Amino acid sequence: MEEIGRMYGYDRIPETMIHDRLPRPRATPEIEGEERLRLTLARLGVQEAVTYRLTSPEREARLRLALAADEPDYVRLANPISADRVVLRRQLLPGLMEAVERNTRVRERIALFEIGPVFLPRRHEPLPDEVARLALVLTGRRALPGWQPGDTGAIDFFDLKGVVEHLLSELHVQAEFESAQQEPYLPGKCAGLKVEGSVVGWMGELHPMLVQRYDLAGSPVQAAEFDLARLLDAMQLRQDLALVSPYPPVLEDLAVVVDEALPAARVEEVIRRAAGGLLERLELFDLYQGEQIGAGKKSLAYSLVYRSGERTLTDEEVRAVRQRVVTALQEDVGGSLRQ
After folding, report:
1. Is the pLDDT of residue 161 over 80?
2. 301 contacts 286 by C-beta, under 8 angstroms
3. Is residue 6 a part of any domain in this protein?
4. Whole-number mean pLDDT of the chain?
5. CATH of the domain at 215
6. Which residues contact 130 (CB under 8 A, 6 or more apart)?
7. Do residue 183 and residue 296 come from a single domain?
8. pLDDT at position 136, please?
9. Fewer CB near the terminus (10 Å): N or C of the chain?
10. Helix (H) or strand (E) holding 169
11. Is the distance from CB of 226 to CB of 133 less than 8 angstroms?
């Protein structure tokens, strides 16, 4: 058509207006979700990186402690452009770690994320599964030195967890964190992210033995990699809103002693269920372990806010709720109030 138009002459073709209606715009939740992810992470000070989809098994093996004997092979290129770009990547983190390695020489704090596909080979199938992933890498100082005093300590697991929690809040995704052991993370500092009952990825501090393979400044590296499609599938486009209560809140602190191995999330679950609809906010503000409470125990101190949307709460109502919470903690998790 272009050749005919050129030979005939574009100037001889009459101009006409569009006679058809424009198509009705349709929502694209996947694209909207990705853009919301990018904007949220940018507001949190995490920069987007775009790394190569082509890599080599040796590059990805830098983030592996051991290779499984029955591990499927990579998707290999028939005509690679270079010796170090011969296969399609199966993870995002190795590429991000190489970007961190190049930039850590000139920057004291690095926070990167990437959204992109990985290519997982399928046995006896010619084409791989192309899965969208989200990866994060944080390392260096929590805050750069400045004229105002700030926390310049090393970024730790809880900084990464805070970023992930804020991200989930923006997407309105209900998720849980559970302790896990997964390569390439350090045991004891690794968590799985569960959405709708299934794990969608892992996060934690990279194992020091693996970090030593990179030319870094020595700071611990916090990383995460999640299945992006499953996160976006759980995203809630509509949320229920409630009127702001005109009645005053009732504030209360509660310190409970439980077994050291018991997750704080389990304690919070018991408190929320026992307190019911009058509990407006629950926040953990202190963790104590020491001789005063005995070996193998820990004290978790919570700030509770009670409020009703219909009336001012009385002392009797608040005491009744508190008693239900204390009884539930004793019966469900073996907890006791700290004296």
Report:
1. yes
2. yes
3. no
4. 90
5. 3.30.930.10
6. 117, 118, 119
7. no
8. 97
9. N
10. helix 157-171
11. yes
The neighbour count for residue 91, using CB atoms within 10 Å, is 18
Neighbours of 121 (CB within 10 A): 18
- Same domain? 200 vs 307: no
pLDDT at position 68, please? Answer: 66
In 3-state terms, the chain is what percent helix, strand and coil (to 5)?
30, 30, 40
Share of the chain above pLDDT 70, in %: 99
3-state class of 303 per DSSP? strand
CA angle 173, 176, 182 (to 5 degrees): 120
Arithmetic mean of pLDDT, 126-154? 88
Task: Calculate ∠ Cα 263-187-157, nearest 5°.
Answer: 65
Nearest Cα residue to 156 out of 139, 175, 173, 172? 139
CA-derived radius of gyration, the chain: 26
Are residue 81 and residue 138 in the same domain, yes or no?
Answer: yes
Region 311-337: mean pLDDT is: 92
- Chain centroid, CA 238 distance in Å: 21
CB neighbours of 245 closer than 8 A, spacing ≥ 6?
Answer: 280, 307, 308, 309
- Per-residue pLDDT reduced to its tens digit, 55-103: 999 999 899 887 766 677 888 898 998 888 999 999 999 999 999 999 9
What secondary structure does DSSP assign to 257-301, as a single string?
A: EEETTS-HHHHHHHHHHHHGGGEEEEEEEEEE-STTT-TTEEEEE
Residue at token pair 């704080």? 264
Total Cβ atoms within 10 A of residue 168: 18
- Reported as a single tens digit per residue, the pLDDT across 163-214 is 999 999 988 898 999 988 998 999 989 999 999 889 999 999 999 999 999 9
Let me know if residue 15 belongs to a domain: no
**How much of the chain, in percent, has pLDDT values that exceed 90?**
61
Rounded to an integer, what distance in angstroms lies between the CA atom of residue 253 and that of residue 304? 6
Q: CB neighbours of 287 closer than 8 A, spacing ≥ 6?
A: 264, 298, 299, 300, 301
